[in-house]
Amino acid sequence: MKRVLLRTFLKSVLTLLTATIVMMASLVFTSDFIHLTLIFWAIFAWSYIFWDSFFTQKKTTNNHTC
Questions:
Q1: What are the tens digits of pLDDT across the range 51-62?
Q2: For residue 57, what is the DSSP state?
Q3: Which of helix, strand or coil describes residue 33?
Q4: What is the pTM (predicted TM-score) of this model?
Q5: What secondary structure does DSSP assign to 4-28, as a single string?
Q6: Which of 2, 39, 61, 66 has the fewest CB atoms inside 10 Å of its own CB, making it the most exposed?
Q7: Which residues contact 10 (CB under 8 A, 6 or more apart)?
Q8: How far apart, in whole angstroms, are the C-alpha atoms of residue 51 and residue 35?
C-alpha cells in the first residue's frame, strides 16, 4: 500500500513537472493563454500515460533480471 502511494505521488509530481517545463518552453512560441492551457493539459495527459507505462515496464523488467 505504501509503495503504491509513493509511486502514484511520484507519477503525479513527474507529470506536473513535465507539463510545466513544456508549457514554459512553449512561451517562446506563443503567449496566447488558450494555447498555453491546451498545451499544458495535452502534455499533462500524455505524460501521465507515459510515466505510468514507464513505471510499469520498469517494475516488470526488475522482476526478470538475472
A1: 888 878 877 776
A2: H
A3: helix
A4: 0.72
A5: HHHHHHHHHHHHHHHHHHHHHHHTT
A6: 66
A7: 55
A8: 24
**Assigned C-alpha cell, 16:** 506536473
CA angle 26, 30, 32 (to 5 degrees): 115
Query: What's the CA gap between 46 and 49, in Å, rounded?
Result: 5
How far is it, in rounded angstroms, from Cα 13 to Cα 15? 5
Residue 17: all three cell numbers together: 513537472
Question: Which pLDDT value is given to residue 66?
Answer: 56
The upper half-sphere exposure of residue 49, i.e. CA atoms within 13 Å in the direction of its Cβ, equals 5
Cell numbers at 30, concatenated: 506563443
